[in-house]
């Protein structure tokens, strides 16, 4: 008799350390970088949250926005559960926003899932100093277990039914067949053998993918199960999702949910054990505890064996499938085994094709450890010889920046020349900005983040890296977007390597894309960092307008924008989707774009000046001069021309 209570105490010790009741006050999770209470960041968050509840109701239950300037810009995200009543949603978001302001007075990141006082709706409020849109966040966790525990005598029968209900609810929540903004949501009600009613609710933020929602919900369940198995209800949440279950209807949505029977119990308990339980309740209690310990021990053994196998496999892959290679400058990079790449791409299957570049085809590959990559297989006879291939490997290995696509390694065996890059899931920016449906996802906050990221990547290429690089083929199709919509400059096929003290060069053969080329480069072959600045200006105006440069045949977007600027009507070019966003801030960026496309290259700003202007409201920005009006010859975009030239470094990256 004495051993059982001791054992139960040991099993429950971790539960007691973080115990909170579900009936208590919802707690805001405050984390991230510190800030002062009366700082600009604090004021910006209060301003953003002042009308957050109203914006959520007006935008179908989900709202994502930001306020302020870098580095004190505040990003906010809020939502209500599907089927909400407007007043209940408003009250829920307003309460959580106020709680965040009151309780998170020293940390920039926060999230809080909660309910209104009548439990008619659940809602979420998040804030951060970086964009959280389309970003899966699995930390920090927040858990509220029920104070009541399930009797050991019923736990063995209960668990299989509970697990089946969990799987059923996750599957239904992540199918997202509903076209509503609040698509990842499910409320379930079932009858169990020992509980007449069990209620379960799952929800994800609608900006993440179905796959990410599934991951988030399963991690919630795993986190709850590991720590609070045996409680009569509870919730677990991350910034991106919520999981909750209980024996009572804790949410108004259950009023319209049909009760279904629980799935039949699994083979854990047979009829003989059930009859024994009726006769000897204490016996099944011991058996339940022993079964739990045995299962956990067995799982630990399997995990340990799995770790050993994974370690052995990775060690074998390192010795056989890949190796480190050092070039003449001592730069280390990864050389992949050809067989490993062929397996990852299913022998370069057409189904894995991501795109076709000027020098080869890009395939999606998946390594045995689940890592996804983009594999560039250079076409034999494409013009890239052994020297150029080595230069490309050497160049991209040295360029390491969050706004450049990363080269992971290479392969040069069996007559093949292959480059392996990080996989960027959201393809290129032109697939969003020029698509009427996808463009709605590009709020001004997201577009500003993309513009700033491109600028930082160019600043790194021009000034901050150990090399000095002019890209020469900047355009929206060469800007890739990762899962968090961070931009990454790609396609270095025509990149030009400069000496440290070299500022400009000349070439007789032009390489790049018409419409984005600076006039001095297109007409006279003059190359400099200001050539990239011109291309950046054209892209900036395209991002603001949502229109292609080639849509303005005969004059180009830059010339069209300049005419509207002179007329005092620059807002004419602003994308209609951005009508609710800060007009003065957008016009400031139109001004920066016009400065970048000035005909006189010497008057164009450096990327360091652009970064400074983007991050400050107090610095005086000069007035622009007229851009080049080079007519249809220079502004019609007829495609990309890439030619090999003596003295140039060629590095092509077309992971799209």
UniProtKB/TrEMBL annotation:
Residues 348-620 form the Protein kinase domain. Residues 23-132, 138-250 form the Gnk2-homologous domain. The chain crosses the membrane at residues 284-308. GO terms for biological process: response to abscisic acid. ATP binds at residue 376. It is a single-pass membrane protein. The keyword Transmembrane applies. InterPro entries: GNK2, GNK2_sf, Kinase-like_dom_sf, Prot_kinase_dom, Protein_kinase_ATP_BS, Ser-Thr/Tyr_kinase_cat_dom, Ser/Thr_kinase_AS. One of its GO terms (cellular component) is plasma membrane. It is found in: Membrane. This is Uncharacterized protein.
């Amino acid at each position: 008799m004495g051993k059982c209570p001791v054992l139960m105490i040991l099993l429950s010790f971790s539960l007691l350390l973080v115990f909170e009741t579900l009936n208590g006050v919802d707690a805001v999770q405050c984390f991230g970088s510190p800030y002062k209470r009366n700082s600009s960041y604090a004021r910006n968050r209060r301003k953003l949250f002042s009308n957050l509840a109203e914006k959520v109701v007006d935008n179908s239950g989900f709202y994502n926005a930001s306020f302020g300037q870098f580095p004190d810009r505040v990003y906010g995200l809020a939502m209500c559960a599907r089927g909400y009543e407007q007043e209940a949603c408003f009250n829920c978001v307003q309460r959580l926003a106020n709680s965040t302001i009151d309780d998170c007075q020293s940390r920039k990141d926060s999230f809080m899932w909660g309910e209104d006082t009548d439990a008619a709706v659940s809602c979420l409020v998040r804030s951060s100093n970086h964009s959280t849109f389309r970003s899966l966040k699995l930390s920090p966790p927040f858990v509220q277990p029920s104070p009541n525990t399930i009797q050991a005598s019923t736990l063995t029968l209960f668990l299989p039914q509970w697990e089946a209900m969990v799987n059923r609810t996750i599957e239904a929540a992540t199918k997202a067949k509903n076209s509503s903004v609040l698509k990842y949501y499910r409320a379930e009600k079932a009858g169990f053998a020992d509980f007449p009613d069990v209620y379960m609710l799952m929800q994800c933020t609608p900006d993440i993918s179905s796959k990410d929602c599934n991951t988030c919900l399963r991690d919630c369940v795993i986190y709850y199960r590991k720590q609070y198995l045996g409680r009569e209800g509870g919730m677990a949440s991350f910034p991106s999702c919520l999981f909750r279950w209980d024996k009572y209807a804790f949410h108004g949505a259950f009023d319209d949910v049909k009760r279904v029977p629980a799935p039949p119990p699994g083979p854990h308990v047979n009829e003989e054990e059930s009859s024994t339980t009726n006769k000897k309740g204490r016996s099944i209690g011991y058996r339940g505890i022993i079964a739990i310990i045995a299962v956990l021990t067995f799982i630990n053994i399997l995990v340990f064996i799995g770790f050993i196998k994974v370690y052995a496999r990775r060690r074998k892959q390192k010795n056989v499938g890949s190796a480190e290679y050092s070039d003449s400058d001592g730069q280390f990079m990864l050389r992949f085994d050809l067989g490993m790449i062929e397996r990852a791409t299913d022998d370069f299957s057409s189904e894995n094709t991501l795109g076709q570049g000027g020098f080869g085809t890009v395939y999606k590959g998946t390594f045995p450890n689940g890592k996804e990559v983009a594999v560039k297989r250079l076409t034999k006879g494409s013009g890239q010889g052994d020297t150029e291939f080595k230069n490309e490997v050497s160049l991209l290995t040295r360029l390491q920046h969050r706004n450049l696509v990363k080269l992971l390694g290479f392969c040069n065996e069996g007559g093949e020349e292959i480059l392996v890059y990080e996989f960027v899931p959201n393809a290129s920016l032109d697939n969003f900005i020029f698509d009427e449906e996808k463009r709605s996802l590009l709020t001004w906050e997201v577009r500003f983040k993309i513009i700033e990221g491109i600028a930082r990547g160019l600043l790194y290429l021009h000034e901050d890296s150990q090399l000095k690089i002019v890209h020469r083929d900047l355009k929206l199709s060469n800007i890739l977007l990762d899962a968090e919509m961070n931009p990454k400059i790609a396609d270095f096929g025509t990149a030009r390597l400069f000496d440290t003290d070299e500022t400009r060069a000349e070439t007789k053969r032009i390489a790049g894309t018409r419409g984005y080329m600076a006039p001095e480069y297109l007409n006279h072959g003059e190359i400099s960092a200001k050539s990239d600045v011109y291309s950046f200006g054209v892209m900036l105006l395209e991002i603001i307008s949502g229109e292609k440069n080639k849509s303005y045949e005969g004059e180009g977007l830059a010339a069209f924008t300049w005419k509207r600027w002179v007329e005092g009507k620059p807002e004419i070019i602003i994308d209609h989707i951005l009508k609710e966003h800060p007009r003065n801030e957008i016009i400031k960026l139109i001004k920066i774009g016009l400065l970048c496309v000035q005909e006189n290259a010497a008057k164009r700003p450096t990327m360091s000046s652009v970064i400074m202007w983007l991050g400050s409201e107090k610095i005086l920005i000069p007035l622009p001069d007229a851009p080049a009006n080079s007519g249809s010859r220079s502004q019609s975009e007829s495609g990309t021309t890439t030619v090999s030239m003596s003295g140039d470094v060629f590095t092509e990256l077309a992971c799209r």
